[in-house]
Amino acid sequence: MAQEQQIINQIFGTTANDVIYGGNSSDRIIGFQGDDIIVGNAGDDVISGDGGNDLWLDGGDGTDMIAGGNGNDKLAGGNGNDLMYGDGGDRYWQKDATGNWVYTGVDNKSGFDLSSDQALTSNTNTGSGTQLSTNNDYLTGGDGNDVLLGGIGNDAIDGGAGNDTINGGAGDDYWLAGKDGNDIINGDAGNDILEGGNGNDLLNGGIGNDKLMGGSGNDTLQAGADNDYLDGGDGNDILDGGTGYDHLKGGKGDDQLVGGSGNDVLEGEDGNDLLAGGTDHDYLMGGSGNDTLYGESGNDLLDGGVGDDLLDGGDGNDILLGGEGSDRLNGGNGSDIIDGGAGNDLITGGEGNDNIHGGADNDTIWGDAGDDVMYGDAGNDTIGGGDGNDYFTGGLGDDSLLGGTGVDVIEGGAGNDVISGGEGNDKWLSGGEGNDKISGDAGNDILGGGTGNDTLIGGDGNDVLMGGDGNDNLIGDAGDDYWLDGGAGDDIIYGGLGNDLVAGGTGNDLVSGDDGNDTVLGNDGNDTLYGGVGNDNLYAGDGNDILDAGTGDDYLKGGKGDDKLVGGLGNDILEGEDGNDLLIGGTGNDSWMSGGSGNDTVYGENGNDVLDGGTGDDLLDGGNDNDILLGGDGSDRLNGASGLDTINGGAGNDLITGGEGNDNIHGGADNDTIWGEAGDDAIYGDAGNDTIGGGDGNNYLNGGLGDDILYGGTGVDVIEGDAGNDLIYGGQGDDKWLFGGEGVDKIFGEAGNDILDGGTGNDQLFGGDGTDILKGSDGADQLFGDNGNDQLFGGNGNDQLVGGDGNDYLLGVDNVTDFGKGSIDVLTGGTGADYFVLGEKQAFYNDGNNSTSGLQDYALIKDFNSAEDHIKLSGVASNYLLGSAIKVGEGVGIFLDSNSNSVFDSTDELISLVQGSKVSLTDSSFVYV
């Protein structure tokens, strides 16, 4: 061994085995060749063993830099923050807290070159200097803030206590550990394992497939290139995967994980972590805590785990799983799959065609752009489709669903849901179970309430609304709605604007067409139908229904049940059909109001209406204006009311009232009661035993077949009993014609100057007050002039004429055809100056048979008073003879001198038997024509 050298500031060894001690100042010592022992003592020393296997390189006290050089060296840092470079499989020693030397292992680092007075330069991948070793080193920093450089080779470096800087250098470094302190660890090239230990460490993996473990403390881990594994450990760590396929685990604490490029796996684990996948296809797991996950570009899988997390898929077709907690999930660009999991989540699909599940609890979901499929699942969810043609269902719970733009399919599922179709022609908006509120909004939509008491609003467009089961409210709103169906239950339906088709379905429904030309169907149940404004069609179906057409020209059909039909304003058609129906035409010319079968009540009201009772005992009232009333079968009550009405009672015993106006009335078959009332009426009893009263006005009454009772009323009437044994009363007024027609009739002229004609049959005519004309016509008639100056014409048959009070004119025969041949008439003038006609152009009661003396045809004048009465004969006085006719009773006979011999004999023809005053053919009481 060489001699010991004096301690100076700069010391150089020899090629031999040297022992060198530095002073207490800062020394620079180089051992050169040989197996040297170098002790720096106090001061901040720089020591290089250089060549040889150096036995002991000890920095002593102070902040020292020690390089082993070539060979297998022993390096001891001593006290202070030392920087040691092994450069060749060196062993490291460090003093412990008691001052004893402790072996700290083998390390691998590049070294530095002290062969000249130049500044110390590290030998790194990017720096300059001379590579001192290519061996696998084991380096231990000990206490203090050390700088440990592994160099080339597969090194192990232990920073120990202090804030150390460790560079692994080239090679696969299997352990780069900072231990205690805030360390900086660089893996450099190779597949390295980096462990920060305690403290807030910075780990850089560098090139290669590295494993970085932060340990405790708030660490920063940077993977660098290639496929790395990063574990932050405890503390609030920052992990950066860099390039390559990396696996990042945050561990405990609030960590930040950045995947970088490559298909990375990021696990936040415990704490409130921030995860960013970066480019390519990443798998992000938030773990427990309130985490933030960004998938960024690529097709990523994001799992929030437990906690209230924020997940953003970014670009690409991502899968987002919220897990437990109230999470916020955003799919971003691409076609994403999203599941909120448990908790009250806020989910946004973003662009692309997304598939979204809200999961349990109360979620808010927005599909945004694209054709999305969304499921609210359990909970009270809010879902918005956004742009695109979306499908979504609320699932369990009371959900709010908004379709947005596009052609959407929305199903509320179970619960009381609120659904809005938004813009677009939505294919299906279904409430499902529960009491739902559904609005189609803009577009041609299809809405289905499902079960429950639902509210459906079509909105703009031509919509289809189906209430389903339950008591539903349907509003078609604007547009020509194709089909509004309440379904089962007691529903309320409004067609809204446009031409709508509306159906109540089963149940007791309220259905309104509202504006537009609507078709309204009640179907089963006791329904209320409103047409609203427009020309509507209302069909009640089964049940006791109410139909109100509103304004417009409407068609109403009652169907089965006891229905009420109201035409309203416009020209309407009303058909009650089965049941006891009430029909009210309202204002307008209602062209057809038919009660159908049943006992119906029909009111025409204002306008020129047509009313048909149909079968059953009906009540018809025409109301104002000119109506047509048809009773149909059954015993009906018909009232024309005001206007010029046409009324036909039809079959049955009808009660008919014409009301005001000039009415035309037919009783129809059976026994009718008809009152014309005010106006000039034409009334026909038709078949049956009818009672007819003309009422006020100049009326025409015809009893028709049957035994009728006819009352003329006031006015100038024409009454014809027609066939049957009729009873006719002229009433007040100058009746033009009271005609019994066929049958045994009784006619009363009553007040006024009347004309009575018995027609065929043995009739009774009573002139009543006024100057009357009574005609017996055919049959054995009885004519009573009553008061007034009357004219009585017996006509054919054996008639009785009684003038009554007044100056009467009595003519017993038909003075046109048979002239009394074969007739024996009884003429009684009554009070007043009466005129008895026994001939005109020819003698009456002349049968032309001189052998019978005329005992079969003559006139019996019962009360002739020559002082005031007159007898009218044909020819001159010399054509007649006075004599007695014992066989026919008392009185003076007036005979026609048949052989003109002026001698009374058996050949003379009896013309009249006169009772009362003396008779003289030349008296002024006889008038000859």
UniProtKB/TrEMBL annotation:
GO terms for molecular function: calcium ion binding; toxin activity. Keywords: Membrane, Repeat, Secreted, Toxin, Virulence. InterPro entries: Hemolysin-typ_Ca-bd_CS, Hemolysn_Ca-bd, RTX_toxin/Mannuronan_C5-epim, RTX_toxin_determinant-A, Serralysin-like_metalloprot_C. It is found in: Membrane; Secreted. Pfam families: HemolysinCabind. Residues 250-271, 342-361 are annotated as: Disordered. Transmembrane segments: none annotated. One of its GO terms (cellular component) is membrane. This is Calcium-binding protein.
